[in-house]
Each structure stands twice: as structure tokens, then as C-alpha cells.
Amino acid sequence: MLKQDPTDHQENLLNGYPPLKLVNRKTENEQTIVQVAGVKFGGVDIVVIAGPCSIENKEQLWAIGNSVKNSGARILRGGVYKPRTSPYSFQGLQDDGLKLLSWIRNEIGLPVVTEVMDPRKLELVCQHADMIQIGSRNMHNTPLLNEVGQIRKPVLLKRGMSATIDELLFAAEYIVKLGNNQVVLCERGIRTFETFTRFTLDISAIPLLKRLCHLPVIVDPSHGSGHWWMVPWLSKAAVAAGADGLIIEVHHDPAKALCDGGQSLLPEKFQTLMTDLKALAQVMGRKISTSEN
Ligand code: PEP
Ligand code: MN
Predict the structure, then answer these.
(1) Whose CA is nearest to atom 6 of ligand 1?
(2) Which long-range contacts (CB under 8 A, 24 or more apart) does 13-20 make?
């Protein structure tokens, strides 16, 4: 067991209250490695996922996919079913977007991650994606958690924007309980009284989750801030705080993006960030995952 500190109420999690059984860390060295088509989360390597918020068309996906790959991203992100606040906003290309996802994955050879909201779409999405994303708005959706618990695909579980740490851990427990232990947790910002930023990125969640749980933890600085110029700062803060990876929105023409342009990095800014992250990872005794590993 880890050393107990009776003054630290979060240690209650380790003591069995709330009663996590599977995802709680029981020993210092316990660590789940999550594998997405050979890309490993949870080891020494820090994995960077990047791509557009939403897949818009073939040309956009080709331009962004190639640029993030050339800058060192190991997994391509791209939403096709988009959870939008307004029903009048672009909802994603839906099923048609999945075909583009398969196409780009074959063309550039990067594994892909995309969000599923409707459990009825899960089987179809599994035919096109290497990793299934559960978004912030669905972290509490237990029927969806139960479905992804029964598949054999890695899951990217994002923290609900108003979810506590133990609620996130219990959501992961739902999935792992049904036999799918390939779960990566993602801190993506929480709602606070601050309105300048879209959400408040909870940096403390990184060491906390890693202390309480043996699943890999990554950070989304794009949704976590809502401002592209903050993304490099927050990415570095996340790596300094021990994150096992990052998921970053990139767009080649942010002003024309159909979703989240204001928080998307231009490809050249992403490239610079990757160079900076390599140096920082080394200081942290880690390294940025590359295809040469
Ligand atoms: C996303 O990653 O595209 C997304 C919608 O994120 P979140 O669920 O964290 O808002
Ligand atoms: Mn987005």
C-alpha cells in the first residue's frame, strides 16, 4: 500500500472509500499501459494526439493530418459527431465523417480517435476508429460507459466539466468493471467562476489522478482554455505536472473552422510546441513518443 496520510482526505480513496475496486492505485509502481495501434500511453513516453476539432472535408483533413504527423503527433483526432451547445451549430459530418476517418488513417498511417455520444453508433465507429472518445458531456452517461466497457478498443475518457475527481474515477471504474481496462483519463478543464477562459484547466488533477489511479492521464489544453495562444503554455504546464500525453486541436485555417477555431493552433505553432516539448520532456526524465520507439 502507499503510505497513508490521515490528514489527506483523498487518501480515503486508497482506503476503499469511495469503494473503487479496480482503477485505484494499490502500489507505487502499478501502472496500466494503454496501447492504441502500438502507441503506448502510461510509460516513459509522452503521447501527443492532435488534429482538427471536427472533420470538415477531405482537403481540410488531409492538410491538417499530414502537418500534425510531420510535427510528431502519434494519433490523429477528428470529431464527426459533435456535441454542440446550439442545435443550429455544425453538428459534425456524422456517419459520412467516419469514411473520411478511415481514409486518412490508411493514407497517413496514424491511428485515429473520435468521439461517440450515442451507444447505438458504437459498433459502427469501432469499424473506423482506433480509440473511442467519451466526451465531457457524456462522462456521466452510464449506458454509454457500460457499452464501451464491453468492447475491446481503448477508450479516452474525458472529465466531465463539472465532475469531481472521484466521479471521473468512478466513470472509469464502470468501464474497467466490464472488462475493458484500456482507459486513458483526460483532464480538459472544469467550470469555475472565471469566464475569460472557456474552462479552468485543473493542473492539480494530473498529480492527483496519477496518485490515486493507475490509468494513464492526458490533458486537453485546447478545451481547457478556449484560447489558442494559451495552448503552448498549458501544454508545458501539463507535461511539467506529470501528464502522460496531450490532445491538441490544430487547424490550418482557424478563422474558417466550423468548430473551435479560436482554440486551434496553426500547424507551424504546433510544430514549435512539439520542439519545445521535446526539451521539457527530457528535463522531466521522459520523452515525447516517436514512431522510432
Ligand atoms: C472534443 O474533444 O472535441 C470535445 C468536444 O471535448 P470535450 O468533450 O472535452 O468538450
Ligand atoms: Mn473542440
Answers:
(1) 135
(2) 13/166, 13/169, 13/212, 14/212, 18/166, 18/170, 20/166, 20/169, 20/170, 20/173
Residues 16-43, mean pLDDT to the nearest whole number: 91
Residue 185 DSSP SS3: strand
CA nearest ligand 1 atom 4, residue: 135
**Assessment of whether the complete model's pTM goes beyond 0.90:** yes
Whether 83 lines ligand 1, by a CB cut-off of 6 Å, is: yes
Rounded CA-CA distance 103/48 in Å is 21
Which three cell numbers, joined as nine digits, stand for 246?
A: 496531450
Distance (Å, whole) CA 79 – CA 116: 9
Tell me the average pLDDT across 81-103.
Answer: 97
pLDDT band at 11; cut points 50, 70, 90:
low
| Ligand 2 ion: nearby residues, β-carbon < 5 Å | 53, 260
> Is 238 in contact with 245 (CB distance < 8 Å)?
no
Domain 48-288 class?
alpha beta
DSSP string, 17-65: SS---SSB--STT--PPEEETTEEESSSEEEEEEE-SB---HHHHHHHH
Q: What are the structural domain ranges in the chain?
A: 48-288
pLDDT, tens digit (0-9, with 9 covering 90-100), for 163-221: 999 999 999 999 999 999 999 999 999 999 999 999 999 999 999 999 999 999 999 99
pLDDT digits (tens, 9 = 90+) for 230-264: 999 999 999 999 999 999 999 999 999 999 999 99
Reading the block at residue 138, the C-alpha cell is 457524456
Could you tell me the pLDDT band of residue 19, with boundaries at 50, 70 and 90?
A: confident
